[in-house]
Task: inverse folding
């Protein structure tokens, strides 16, 4: 009688090894598939989060653009510039699509004098008028005069050559500060309209939102894993001196802006570029402002196209 070998035969070992290899292979495939799905989901979530952050940032800025004056927004004409200065960051009337909101494409002569060097040509930018310090006048000042009564606190935060916005029942006026004394500021030019105690005054500071090249702390341009330039959404505020641009969200590019009119549909053809509006509508802007009810901002976020719609009317 033959005794059975207590070990495994060669055939049994080969079969066991084959089963192990197949099992490990399946596990690796499952892991790689799960990892791929996780990577895609992570990218989708990041893109969604970036889109939400971008919408919140731009919506808040656009809706709150302007000046906190008791007279509200003047939509009939632009703010009157009495400084005789060429103030590019004040915005160009032909680019104004809503009170205090301007849209233009990077690469024109106006943008070249407003934006930092990292702005990406061919993309749209938004200029929003506003003030970073606000107060009210303490005295009456007749037209033809250039001295304004203000609070000491407001005066202490101004510097010579700062631009100020004065809002009255007649108009908004852009002036430039010549000198400052206790409770008084003197403008470089005389007012064309009388202003009164309680009227609005603010230090003018527009904010521009644009697409720019992203850089690391050493100033080197950032690139992705494929060697492509990384772009970001930036904001840039300016008074009489440039301030450092702020990088808000990275991996955002190709900002293009279109507008929607009341009473039209929601097809792509119903969204118009700001430049295509009739010149008569540009001249008589009150009619134009009353018709535009929404703005669509098209962006590429983490390589994915995204549309942000901002309602301009309730």
Result:
């Amino acid at each position: 009688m033959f005794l059975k070998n207590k070990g495994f035969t060669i055939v049994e070992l080969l079969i066991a090894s084959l089963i192990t290899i197949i099992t490990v292979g399946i596990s690796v495939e499952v892991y790689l598939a799960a990892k791929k799905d996780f990577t895609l989901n992570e990218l989708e979530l990041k893109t969604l989060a970036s889109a939400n952050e971008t919408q919140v940032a731009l919506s808040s800025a656009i809706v709150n653009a302007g000046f906190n004056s008791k007279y509200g927004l003047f939509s009939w004409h632009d703010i009157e510039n009495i400084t005789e200065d060429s103030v590019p960051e004040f915005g160009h009337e032909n680019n104004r699509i809503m009170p205090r909101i301007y849209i233009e494409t990077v690469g024109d002569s106006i943008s070249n004098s407003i934006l930092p060097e990292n702005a990406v040509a061919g993309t749209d930018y938004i200029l929003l008028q506003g003030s970073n310090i606000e107060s009210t006048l303490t005295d009456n000042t007749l037209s033809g005069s250039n001295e304004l009564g203000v609070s000491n606190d407001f005066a202490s935060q101004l510097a010579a050559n700062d631009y100020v916005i004065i809002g009255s029942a007649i108009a908004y006026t852009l002036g430039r500060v010549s000198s400052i004394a206790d409770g008084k500021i003197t403008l470089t030019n005389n007012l064309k309209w009388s202003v009164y105690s309680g009227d609005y005054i603010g230090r003018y500071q527009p904010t521009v939102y644009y697409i720019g090249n992203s850089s690391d702390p050493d100033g080197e341009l950032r690139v992705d894993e494929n060697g492509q330039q990384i772009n970001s959404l930036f904001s840039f505020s300016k008074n009489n001196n440039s301030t450092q641009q702020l990088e808000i969200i990275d991996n955002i590019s190709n900002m293009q802006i279109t507008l929607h009119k009341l009473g039209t549909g929601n097809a792509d053809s119903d969204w118009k570029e700001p430049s295509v509006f009739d010149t008569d509508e540009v001249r008589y802007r009150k009619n134009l402002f009353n018709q535009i009810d929404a703005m669509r901002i098209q962006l590429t976020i983490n390589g994915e196209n995204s549309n942000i719609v901002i309602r301009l009317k309730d």
About this structure: Residues 47-311 form one domain. The two ends are 98 Å apart (CA to CA). The longest strand covers residues 172-181. The chain has one domain: 47-311.
